[in-house]
Specification:
By secondary structure, the chain is of the alpha/beta class. The chain has one domain: Metallo-beta-lactamase, Chain A, CATH 3.60.15.10. It contains seven helices and eleven strands. Strand 3 and strand 4 form a beta hairpin. Helix 1 crosses helix 3. 47% of the residues are buried.
Amino acid sequence: MTDAASLPGQPRGGVIGGQATARAHCVLAPNPSPMTLDGTNTWILAEPDSELAVVVDPGPLDEDHLRHVIGTAERAGKRVGLTLLTHGHPDHAEGAARFAELSGTRVRALDPAFRLGEEGLAAGDVVSMGGLEVRVVPTPGHTADSLSFHLPADGAVLTGDTVLGRGTTMVAHPDGRLGDYLDSLRLLRSLTVDDGVGTVLPGHGPVLEDAQGALDFYLVHRAKRLAQVETAVENGFRTPSGVVEHVYADVDRSLWPAAELSVRAQLEYLRERGAV
């Protein structure tokens, strides 16, 4: 979910669909909406000289899209060997079981409800496939089961819905928690400093070539929104819907239900700290 189609000061994105890095190719799902931007980015990851690929977030249950992902890999000389999920929201995971059936792969995810096969994913895991190395980075906050995937060879990180290519994401209260989300943003920013990550491969929207700038923008934007929510409460806006109407007046009304989830998460965060 985005606060707006674009926001002042936000780093501009580039590629939507197609080859994004040496090891990452995006297939855009046909599910555009105010919540999903241009659609869900399904990622095919592979070493350039390998015959095996990993697919991240097959997307919605759309037979043509799922077959197109497999066909795209095959046209590049790759066979899908594994499916990974950044989180369980339907626009990312609804098609995973059918995709696994079509591709003959296992599905690995943090939430056992979405796994097909015995192995889950956890902090510190390294997924290897045909020479490809994918490091698992837990990034809860948008949802409790949100993961990011670090591609060290490309200096890139796949962020699912934690960082989008345009606008900002919602904290899906009550499953998502703002404190966790802020910690996740700080962890991702540390990758830009300590691990050479320069590129964000998001779950929606264009690729971001300035990862550190994007994460700094997210942290500043989130701090400003939190301050606005706190001020709104001080000025007598006590209900989540009232806060949304006051704070998110510049946001398309179609996004207000999602904004209300973020507001509920912000109010909970402020209450826990005795700020409201």
